[in-house]
Amino acid sequence: MKTASGLAESQKNLRLPFAVAIFCATFNFGLAVLNAVAGSVNTTVVTLVQVLATSMVVACLFKYRARVSLGYLYVVVGVASSWVMVSAYKGSHDLSGLYGAVSVPIFVIFGTLFRPFPTRWLMRFVLVVLAIAIFETVLPNLYVAIANPLSYYRATRAWVAAQQAADSDGLYVGAIRAGGSVFSFFNHHRAGSIFLEPLSLGYFASISFILFSVLYRGQGRRLFSAFCACVLMSLLADTRISTLIIVLTMALMVVRRPPAIATWTMIAVVYVGGYLAYQWIGKWGGDLAYRLSLSYESFANASFGQWLAGDLRVLTLGDSGLVSMLGNYGLIGFALFMVAALNLLDIAWLRSSHAPVAIALYFCVASLFGSAMLSIKTSIFLGIAVGALGKLPSRSISHA
């Protein structure tokens, strides 16, 4: 068992990896500020900075001698190979799919460096993100003057630039919900904080609480404080999905040692349940029915062979993470990607606590309502949660 001095030294060694993680999560905000000041940011700049951020993560793996099993590497190679075959079959390719196939597993391996986990650092970052969200909510005009998310995304995202008529007072294009906000108590818009847009803020809140639910187990006051901070972030983002995930994670804490099949079962329950909900709610229409249709309508119009080949009709790029993953990797590649992203190879991890089940719940539900959970802003913390709370299979080889 480590002494207090040994523990302090171990956490000191985590300063660089944690700083890299924060950079991955926040560089878009920095670029948005630069764009608001100089107006010189474009898609190429964002791509280069994202490559730099990912390269920094890889450099940390070598510097701190991260370890990964051969079996895990085979799965990652399988996902990348699936992307190549699907792209060849369709005669077109989406490089973001290849990036996701490689980056998400890299982030999971990166997460294994965080032992012991710097819980206080995460809480401090959560409080900073929450403070910025409150600042944005109370003083939206000043927030826009500093970062102007709409201007940034129009300069760097083609699909936002195409929506010239959709103005949102300089906020992210989805910051003002068409049917009115559900949980925004202070003003009319959904906060994005340092993530610039509400979905990523809500997903960060979900992942953070899953981490805290394990790290603060048995510490009632700290757990309650973390719960309040994460729920408040979710409410300010007006993200109903993340609020539900946080509450369900709290409920899942009663399960201390779930069977390994529980995580696989959660994946099936979410996707099958989503399809049944689509069939039932679709009769009445509404926003939820529309959102679910973006994922499940593609299945209704495709054969099993098309599922295997990833030949699905995408209504709007990024509107469904599930369809994006299937379209990039095909059915088999998608299954391999889920194994890599959630570390489903490790039975000990799946039996360790409620966390694998909660993470599967988060990832699968989020994939039905867009692709934000695959962006570097949130996938870096997904990888940290899976890697830090879990344990990659014991038969390992060193990267350095």
Automatic annotation (TrEMBL):
User: Which parts pass through the membrane?
Assistant: 16-38, 44-64, 71-89, 95-114, 121-146, 194-216, 223-255, 261-281, 329-350, 357-390
**Signal peptide as annotated in the record:** none
Tell me the protein's name: Polymerase
Which residue windows are coiled coil? none
Organism for this UniProt entry: Dyella kyungheensis
Domain of life the protein comes from = Bacteria
Task: Please provide the record's keywords in A-Z order.
Answer: Membrane, Transmembrane, Transmembrane helix
